[in-house]
Amino acid sequence: MNSSDIVSFVLVNLKRMKLRVSLTVLGVIVGTTAIVAMVALGVGMQQSLIRQFNSLGNVNELMVSANRPSANPFEGQVKNVRIDDKLIKEISRINGVKSVVPMINIGNVLVKIQSHKASNVVIQGFSKKETPKISRGSLPKRDDDKAIILSNKFGESFDDKTPLSTGDLLGKQALLKVSRTLDDGSEEVRQIRVRVVAIAEEKGSKADYSNAYIPIGLAKEIWLWQENKPNLIKRQGYSSLVVTVNSPDYADSVLKKLEAKKLTVFSMKQVLDSIQTSFKVIQAVLGAIGSVALLVASIGIINTMIMSIYERTREIGIMKAVGASNKDIIKIFLGEAGFIGLAGGIGGTFLGWILSKVLSALAAFYLSSSGGGNGSPISFIVPLWLAVFAVAFATSVGLIAGIYPALRAARLNPLVALRHE
Amino acid sequence: MAKAITVTNLVRKYTLGEVLVTALDNISLSIEQGEFVSIMGTSGSGKSTLLNLIGGLDRFDSGKIIVDELDIASLDENELAKYRREKIGFIFQSYNLIPTLTAQQNIELPLIFAGVPKDDRLSKTEQILRAVGLEKRMHHRPTEMSGGEQQRVAIGRALINGPSIILGDEPTGNLDSKTGEEIMELLTWMNKENGLTVIMVTHDPEKARYADRTILIKDGRIIG
Ligand SMILES: Nc1ncnc2c1ncn2[C@@H]1O[C@H](COP(=O)(O)OP(=O)(O)OP(=O)(O)O)[C@@H](O)[C@H]1O
Ligand SMILES: [Mg+2]
């Protein structure tokens, strides 16, 4: 029997019992819709979490620290290695490493632009190899330029009553006030004049408000002045580094090599990987809950098939008498059951997709009206793999449900079947 | 002439609850290639049982059936289906057409199970429809045809795969005598013109006269 003949057999036979088949298909549609909507919720949760994560950090970055938590809880942190310029050179030679930049954060800086003052600003040093992403302006050419990049909503951090537009600050002179405590306990203040050369892109986090970025050379100079210790880098080293890799694929191997150097490494990718793994579990569980409805639908398929085989017993006898093999009979009935699964799967996936759109819109509406901010945390996303999986799964359920009825039909004795009324 | 069918010591028993019915009791016979044989006997004598066993529709308890050197008892389910498909054409008293299919589709059915491509099927069924005189009923369903026309469809279906043996179980039993005669003409034509071996069960001595030879069965045994 050719496969095209099986298909036309199946279609003709299903057409004969339209109402019953439609009801059975409806059961599969409900089950598939449940699976698609459930897993779509899981995918949506995963993606919104990953989005939030990506705003916090970069999967290409490894945070390297010389300290590690001590095994002795009273000891606090212990220092394993000294991160000096020699070690930085070594690290930058590891395969896959794009850049190595010491992490220099200067806290508690007062920034004055014209008559506006912002206190408690955190200033981070950046290398021209790994600059912050900017939305306006241009990047400084050298690592010791007297320049500053303001975070996206910096204008709202001033002590003024009304927030300023950050963009208006572009090109203005800024005065950075830093201070250090001398050995005799007195405070010394230093002022550095820089120019606002760019505005950073929005990150969607707190860092949008009171952060600023200056070239690493300048940052290092200010830091050394503030620490006020001769040979600080040689004797004590940097406390941490940002190692950027060429692509996330290198993150794991570079991480291993860094750990072999007794450095403590925090990798966003590793955290993300473990989140992804737990989301796979969550999606599987949600999918399994949805599958219960499909299981019920599969009983409907079995029932429909057994009834139709009973009604068509004589026909099966005729087909066998004219030479249909058991395999032909199995193919016809498996085809019918599989088609019910396929039709229900396609319908259910479509319905699940529409339902996901509606639920996402509803969630976005309610959460934004209650002040949830941009990007609703509850969204239903139907990726292509989910659609393909749902259709394939429903079809398989149909086929599996069809096995027993099909075998029953094939095993009928032709004579007994022919005598059936 | 070559023996088309050889039956030796064939026994078929049925158990109905506690009762054991011996439908065929040690039957032996042989039928030659191209012979037209009729089988007669009282109701319940085992005529249908014999025909069904020769046609490979059922299994038997002991004895042997050899058809064209093929030992029927040795065939598995799959081979038996192939045997029915390629060697045998059945014609039943109650036509046994599939009610949802047209005349043409009913005739086409064995070709589908034989895996014949669609284009070949079309020309073959048209040829057969012409042979049984049903060109004008091609797209009629069984309920839209007379008994005689339905039986012609059944004959067409029996012929379509080019079998060597036609088995008819009271093919004229449901028809009036004139229509029955038309069917007999067709069977004779198949036998004489196409050289098919025809075995036909009948209660009607008039119809039995079309055959070369008549086998008489009583209580599962051959009596003449
Ligand atoms: N499936 C069955 N189960 C039990 N007994 C059966 C079965 N089929 C046939 N028999 C018995 O076997 C015997 C022969 O039956 P068979 O149908 O061959 O008779 P027949 O000669 O064709 O009769 P008829 O002329 O009425 O068609 C009968 O006694 C019948 O009751
Ligand atoms: Mg009979």
Describe this structure in words.
- The complex is a heterodimer of chains A (421) and B (224).
- With 421 residues, chain A is of the alpha+beta class.
- Chain A has 2 domains: 198 residues, no CATH class; 207 residues, no CATH class.
- In chain A, 53% of the residues lie in helices and 20% in strands.
- A 6-stranded mixed β-barrel of chain A has the order 5-6-11-8-10-9. Chain A has a 4-stranded antiparallel beta sheet with strand order 4-12-1-13. Chain A has a two-stranded antiparallel sheet with strand order 2-3.
- In chain A, a hairpin with a 5-residue loop joins strand 9 and strand 10.
- The longest helix of chain A has 44 residues.
- The two termini of chain A are 27 Å apart.
- With 224 residues, chain B is α/β, with parallel strands linked by helices.
- Chain B has a single domain, classed as P-loop containing nucleotide triphosphate hydrolases (Rossmann fold), CATH 3.40.50.300.
- Chain B has 7 helices and 10 strands.
- In chain B, the strands form 2 sheets. Chain B has a 6-stranded mixed beta sheet, with helices on both faces. A 4-stranded antiparallel beta sheet of chain B has the order 2-1-4-5, covered by helices on one side.
- In chain B, helix 3 packs across helix 4 and helix 4 packs across helix 5.
- The longest helix of chain B has 18 residues.
- Chain B starts with a strand and ends with a strand.
- The model of chain B has no long low-confidence stretch (mean pLDDT 94).
- Chains A and B meet through helix 1, helix 9, helix 10 and helix 12 of A and helix 2 and helix 3 of B.
- Adenosine-5'-triphosphate (ATP) binds next to strand 1, strand 2 and helix 1 of chain B.
